[in-house]
Amino acid sequence: MKTSTNQGLTTTDRTVTTYTTVPLPPCKVCSGTSTGFHFGVITCEACKAFFRRALLQKQNYKCAKDDNCAITDTRLGNCSACRLKKCFALGMSKGGVRRGRYSIALRTKAIIEARSLEGREIIVSMSSSSYSYESHKAVQQKTKKEPMDISDSDSNSLLESEDSKSPTGYMPEEEVELKNLIDTLVSCQDIMYPHIRKYFENKESVQKYHEQIHERYKIKQEMFGTENNISTEEFQQIFAETGLDPDDRLTMFDQKGRSMEHYIQQVINFAKVIPGFKSINSRDVAKLLKASHYEFWMFGYFQAIDSKLQVCGGEDLVDSHISDMSKFFSEDFIKEGMKFADSLKQLQLSIEETALIRAILLTFTDRCTLDEPEKIGNLQLKYISCLIYHLQTHSDQPGKRLAAIFDRLYVARSLSHRNIEVNQEFLHSWGFLIHEYPLWKEMLAYSGNE
Amino acid sequence: MKTSTNQGLTTTDRTVTTYTTVPLPPCKVCSGTSTGFHFGVITCEACKAFFRRALLQKQNYKCAKDDNCAITDTRLGNCSACRLKKCFALGMSKGGVRRGRYSIALRTKAIIEARSLEGREIIVSMSSSSYSYESHKAVQQKTKKEPMDISDSDSNSLLESEDSKSPTGYMPEEEVELKNLIDTLVSCQDIMYPHIRKYFENKESVQKYHEQIHERYKIKQEMFGTENNISTEEFQQIFAETGLDPDDRLTMFDQKGRSMEHYIQQVINFAKVIPGFKSINSRDVAKLLKASHYEFWMFGYFQAIDSKLQVCGGEDLVDSHISDMSKFFSEDFIKEGMKFADSLKQLQLSIEETALIRAILLTFTDRCTLDEPEKIGNLQLKYISCLIYHLQTHSDQPGKRLAAIFDRLYVARSLSHRNIEVNQEFLHSWGFLIHEYPLWKEMLAYSGNE
DNA sequence: GAATGAGGTCACAAGGTCAG
DNA sequence: CTGACCTTGTGACCTCATTC
Ligand SMILES: [Zn+2]
Ligand SMILES: [Zn+2]
Ligand SMILES: [Zn+2]
Ligand SMILES: [Zn+2]
């Protein structure tokens, strides 16, 4: 009969993103149109064939130039030696490659991780400890064996999407499981950060609160003028010589310090409590918490930021205007953060989404060297599955929304990197006061790996 | 045996196999039998080797005559100097040549473009802006960065056909995408030109309509005789002297003018709405619309023409007999158009094919100088993919049909060139009345390149 | 049944060869 | 020198095992 479906023209149209999943980034080797993971890396059909051929018949390619030719779209001539070199540098290899269908969650996770690796070929190739490939290389389930594993047993099969609809009351076990996990995460968040829910449920009062902060700032401004612009150096000199606190900077520091100590304590408690984290060794937990600090805060408190009024505050935060914050941190960076918070607001995240996202961003395995990367990777997979399930049942465009969320996650990571630098500067200037706030200090001192 | 396995095309038997694409035109240099693209141009083996050799050992050929010898498909007697010159004039060059296999759509596009260049060597070589080689030379998209591109993605307009999935329910994503694009194009056409569909669905009533027009013409003819043959000059003289409209010419002009204004407005709206066009800058859009005007109309309204009765008309057109039209345009040209319309009718184009063809002919990048030729080229590739897909699923001889369609497109382009000249004459004679119809005026004023 | 990636096939265009 | 034919790297498309 008709059959005859799939054929021709597949590749030409892959350029356009598919709606149901996170979009595939371009070929890591040549920037052409990618068609999935090949030998462990997202590449185009051409680079895939090239690499396969290279493995097959060990051609001794020689670069005619300096071994650093750019590999662009290879439809035009390219240096084969450098192309192959780049393939290896990106981690392409024959072994441990995944086969068969991906669950949506796994696929999403793999792509996100690949994206977060952008422009890091060399590092990876040098360090040779490529955790980051875990997810699409030999993700394999050893699971089975282990008796322990995560709150919710094994069953890493996960939703399957597809049916998922349950208007009739009945609900498959897996769905129940995911639903429970979501509820639990939200509850944990509610318990540890009871105020966060208010940002979702009382947006008007939050708005008023922000206006008040702004009001107070204006009054202060009128009383004392705008000449608060004492530089960090000037301030420290005055303080050293006179012991005075000319612009309440120290008071603010202490406020912030106390607030952060409490906040961080709750982060730790959150991690202790949420499903799956209990079984992770504490060294890894500590690393994960430190590495995701900025993002974890941002996705919890983006609604506490008002980029128009340039204020930030809430019942569980230190209220402050950007002019206060910039006494400690780079104003540019603060503004970037505010802009980012704005973009999150536009997404209109729900509290469930927020809790799930925060769980996901806690469990990126490629932020640092971990003792149990697979375990944590599987955990993240679970959270991603929950998010996908939640979107499928609560959004009319789940694929698009998922992509949008992961796009934000991606951007947040780059901000997070900036934050580490900013924190270094902060510590340099204010480290002499930090000893009273050990948790904060530890958080600030995190500089990348360990 | 049977086993329906799929090839590039339908699989009646396995005999078909061959990728019946558009036939390859003869060698651009010597008119011999071509063997594909060589150094960017469709040539024969001989010319390919000749050009390669010429690049290798830079012989200084000298023409014994006047540097304009004809190059023929003979083994001996070709002037090497002129042959090489012609090679260069046609755009042959070593750089940026495609490697590897072609996708069906790309190959089709490349050949079509090559054909449309016939007899234009010199122009191309002078302008040195050889857009037309884009498709087989470094077509590729740098895309990557752009949030980009084309079609579906948001589908912010129009029905978008949500379901659209055919009887059997499931369908691979890529196919769904192509199908959606086709549906969307058809819908756009339906919305902007609601009457076009009637030409497809009520051929009998169209036929009757045409007969009525002819009837009226005959009646008028009997009443007033056939001596309406006042020439343009005579008419204008009478009009200038008396202000009279002896043969209703001015009334017809106004009718036509109003009709065209509306039609062109719908062309613009069509372009605003169809997937992919939204992201093209308006300067390019304007150029494309103007350059394809004639063809776009023809492929939309060929069924409104009856070459036997020599009439043209429909609900959204100005009904007229050839004797009316020839008051404004060259009768020869009108007859050519009618003949062409007839050939289109014989093809029995479906409404989907029509919509796709119209999208394709809007996006030829070699009609004029464009700001974003690659983008538009990629867009056209998309439309061509859709057409190929549609033919594969709806025609029993997709390859043949594709070739036939592109053959018509090719002929249409030459008519389009004639049309530009005809329009110049028209403007010359009737420009003094055109100011009330600014869109029409702009369309008519188009003379090739901006 | 649907999706995915390894491996395979062969269309395609350079570049080379060698009788004419 | 010419051009039919061959060799080679390439990449679009297909098949199939695997996994969900
Ligand atoms: Zn590539
Ligand atoms: Zn090189
Ligand atoms: Zn030739
Ligand atoms: Zn000559």
From TrEMBL, chains A, B:
Asked if the Swiss-Prot or TrEMBL record annotates the protein with the keyword Iron, the reply is no
Q: Where is the Nuclear receptor domain?
A: 24-99
- Lineage: superkingdom: Eukaryota
Q: State the PANTHER family in the record.
A: NR LBD DOMAIN-CONTAINING PROTEIN, NUCLEAR HORMONE RECEPTOR
InterPro entries associated with the record: NHR-like_dom_sf, Nucl_hrmn_rcpt_lig-bd, Nuclear_hormone_rcpt_NR1, Nuclear_hrmn_rcpt, Znf_hrmn_rcpt, Znf_NHR/GATA
The entry's protein name is Uncharacterized protein
- Organism of origin is Potamilus streckersoni
Keyword list, A-Z: DNA-binding, Metal-binding, Nucleus, Receptor, Transcription, Transcription regulation, Zinc, Zinc-finger
* Domain called NR LBD: residue spans: 177-445
One GO molecular function term? DNA-binding transcription factor activity
